[in-house]
């Protein structure tokens, strides 16, 4: 069975075609800068990669282009569209309406539309992607895999904000968390690597990319997570401030006369590593400059690691102990300096790093804990597409079964 995985953004569509029988990625790519100048298609198969600039006025053309290249006689990997058994869509926000991946129906799309206020940047383009895929691939099962659903196991004490209860009941204001598909994949991989049942493990997952999620996973279930109603809560990130005193917002408004959109922009796109370093939101560049004694870059890295460390301490307390600490996503998989700073002085929790192994473990799966560490420390490259494909395969099969 071949599964097409789609991640439809506001101006891009990422796609990947996976063969579930041979367990390999046949092809993947991105249609980028939709509706903008210089729009292009980037595409790769097992043997080759291509990039070409083409006008892509809308998501519809973007989708047609993706399907066309998969069928192309020179670069394609399928002969007929009917070879695609099902389509899995990465969907950002399912609110509290969706606790697991779901077969898409008109009713499901309606519920997703109701979640738009919770993710105004992401959900409309996710829905658009689903509608275009349904038109181009009629009759093929389509599955929504929600970034928020893994965290729906959090208890009320963890997900509610201490606001008057009406705000939750009427407007669904609460912590939702994100990167759930990544956290779920990584926690399952960690259990397999540890050769222990997932339902016996307490682990903390550090998904460190341009966005950062720290997740407390107790016996395979998310019990607390650092991102909130929006992806702005948590440790500092590439361009996001992470946790701040909410009073900062009223101060910026009252004292500096900033409007709500300006404040939103400041906290989401001008803060974090970029705001502190003044150089970049890219950890590689910041580390390079820090090595050249750039004080602001040094500070940015110190703040970044310090805030992650604080979350690890908090979640170790929430879990009542920890068996495994996992690093994943771009920074987590590749920046050994950050991992080292995060783990420093955590020996009292039983977290002891093997520095030599840590430095070698770049972008590959493996253990980086020292022999005397009570806690396993792992690096696991995340694979959200594979997780989406596995869910899609299972749900498509179930839906076929229920039709007979």
Structure report:
The protein is of the alpha/beta class and 404 residues long. The chain has 2 domains: 2-146, 2-Layer Sandwich (Nucleotidyltransferase, domain 5), CATH 3.30.420.40; 196-384, Nucleotidyltransferase, domain 5. Helix content is 40%, strand content 20%. It has 15 helices and 14 strands. The protein has an 8-stranded mixed sheet. A 6-stranded mixed sheet has the order 11-10-9-12-14-13, sandwiched between helices. Strand 3 (24-32) and strand 4 (40-45) form a beta hairpin. Helix 1 packs across helix 3, helix 6 (180-194) crosses helix 15 and helix 11 (295-319) crosses helix 13. The longest helix is centred in the C-terminal third of the chain and has 25 residues, at 295-319.
The neighbouring-strand order within the major sheet is 5-4-3-2-1-6-8-7
The CATH architecture of the largest domain can be named as 2-Layer Sandwich
According to CATH, the homologous superfamily of the largest domain is: ATPase, nucleotide binding domain
Determine the number of helices (DSSP H or I, runs of at least 4 residues). 15
* DSSP summary, beta strand count: 14
CATH topology of the largest domain, what is it called?
Answer: Nucleotidyltransferase, domain 5
Oligomeric state of the chains present here? single chain
The helicity comes to: 40-55%
End-to-end CA span: 19 Å
Total domain modules: 2
Mean pLDDT score: 92
Report the principal-axis shape: globular
Task: Encode the helix/strand succession as letters.
Answer: EEEEEHEEHHEHHHEEEHHHHHEHHHEEH
Name of the CATH class of the largest domain: Alpha Beta
Low-confidence stretches: none
């Amino acid at each position: 069975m071949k599964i097409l995985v789609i991640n439809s953004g506001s101006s891009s569509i990422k796609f990947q075609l996976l063969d579930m029988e041979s367990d390999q990625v046949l092809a993947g790519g991105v249609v980028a800068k939709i509706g903008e100048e210089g729009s292009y298609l980037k595409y790769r198969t097992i043997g080759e990669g291509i990039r070409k600039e083409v006008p892509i006025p809308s998501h519809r053309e973007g989708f047609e282009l993706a399907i066309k290249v998969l069928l192309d006689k020179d670069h394609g990997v399928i002969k007929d569209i009917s070879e695609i058994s099902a389509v899995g869509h990465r969907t950002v926000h399912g609110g509290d309406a969706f606790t697991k991946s779901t077969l898409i129906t008109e009713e499901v799309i309606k519920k997703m539309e109701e979640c738009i206020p919770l993710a105004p940047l992401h959900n409309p383009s996710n829905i658009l992607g689903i509608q275009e895929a349904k038109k181009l691939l009629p009759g093929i099962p389509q599955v929504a895999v929600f970034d928020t659903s893994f965290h729906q196991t959090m208890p009320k004490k963890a997900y509610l904000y201490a606001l008057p209860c009406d705000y939750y009941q009427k407007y669904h204001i609460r912590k939702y968390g994100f990167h759930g598909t990544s956290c779920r994949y990584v926690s399952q991989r960690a259990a397999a690597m540890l050769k222990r049942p997932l339902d016996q493990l307490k682990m903390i997952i550090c998904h460190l990319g341009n966005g950062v999620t720290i997740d407390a996973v107790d016996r395979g279930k998310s019990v607390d997570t650092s991102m909130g109603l929006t992806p702005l809560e948590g440790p500092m990130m590439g361009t996001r401030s992470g946790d701040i005193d909410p009073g900062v917002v009223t101060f910026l408004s009252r004292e500096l006369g900033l409007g709500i959109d300006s404040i939103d922009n400041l906290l989401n796109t001008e803060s974090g590593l970029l705001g502190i370093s003044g150089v970049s939101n890219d950890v590689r560049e910041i580390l390079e400059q820090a090595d050249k004694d750039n004080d602001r870059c040094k500070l940015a890295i110190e703040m970044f690691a310090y805030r992650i460390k604080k979350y690890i301490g908090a979640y170790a307390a929430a879990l009542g102990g920890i068996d495994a600490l996992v690093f994943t996503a771009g920074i987590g998989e590749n920046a050994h300096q950050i991992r080292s700073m995060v783990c420093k002085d955590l020996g009292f929790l039983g977290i002891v790093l093997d520095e030599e192994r840590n430095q070698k473990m770049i972008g590959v799966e493996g253990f980086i804990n020292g022999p005397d560490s009570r806690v396993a420390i792992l690096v696991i490259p995340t694979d959200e597409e594979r997780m989406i494909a596995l869910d899609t395969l299972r749900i498509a099969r179930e839906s076929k079964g229920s039709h007979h």
